[in-house]
Amino acid sequence: MTSNTSLKLTALILGGVLISACNPAPQSTDSVESASVEMEAEAGSPALQTEDEKAAYTLGFSAGQATAGSLSYINDSGIALDSALVEAGFIDALNAREAMDQDTMRASLEALQQRVTVAMQAKTEMQAQESMAANTAYLEANKTKEGVVELESGLQYKVLTAGTGDTPKSSDSVKVHYKGTLVDGTQFDSSYDRGTPAEFGVTQVIRGWTEALQLMKEGGKWQLTIPAELAYGSADRPGIPANSVLLFHVELLEVIAD
After folding, report:
1. If we measure between CA atoms, which residue out of 243, 231, 245 comes closest to residue 125?
2. Which of 25, 79, 101, 103 is most exposed, with the fewest beta carbons within 10 Å of its own?
């Protein structure tokens, strides 16, 4: 099971565990249903005056929020659960009654975990294949554009400003300004936005950067088109899906000799 799947489904389980742990002596069915009727009779949210009222509402809200997040994740996998039945199970738990025995519910939850894991893995693989095909097509089209050079590695670049200073070696560090986007224009990083140039070793970055930097000169501005295999490959990163071609506007400000 993937860690994300486990965490999301654990949240769903914890919602029920939290309620059970905090209600060692369940109220009678009549008292809970009576409170529910009174709540529904009020317009909007209930008036929360005392600390006990606030705590009670927060407990229910937290459990509901966790369950809603889990439902959203599960539904996103393609498995559609009936939210009305989730609500019914929640109310039954509050009323100390159950439509299935504990062993059956435990087995059902374990089966759900397995189904979601398989479904999400299949979805991720399909998205990765679609992304790879789309990015391959982008690279093929981009290399035919005016001024674009493609190297044997697959790295593509276009010189915007040639630069006249030193060219960094693999042992050097550099100071650069840059902006990174996906092929659809989505920006995932920018030193310009931070207002501070980045400084790092030439070999401390993705392979596409390492190769490009050793071809640039101080003062140069290049547009880089980096295939996934010279970037993050099939790994998902925050803001960067698997198999993504990355586009960078890079400005080499300074070479810091080793």
Report:
1. 243
2. 25
